[in-house]
Amino acid sequence: MRLNSKAQIDTSEIHYRDPEYEALGGLDACVKDAVTKNRFPKEGTFFKNFIAESRYLAVGYRYINGTYGLIVLYRYGMKLDIRYSIERGILSKIS
Fold it and tell me: For the whole model, what pTM was predicted?
């Protein structure tokens, strides 16, 4: 890490419209789709709006070309979070 360098944080939005959400099979499938299609960055930290039937704040990071990482979805208006781990390229729901 270099001193005085600015971290790059991806803040773009991921939005699955209702027909996409239904066709994929729900929230977990939408998260898997976003990981597979690298809508979450393969390297680095992100802070994004994630919309899949409901609105979430997605916070996380991926590293080693996207093969490891963590994604946490916070549902707006609720004290609830959903966590996913990426290990060796495999996405797993952990809570």
Answer: 0.86
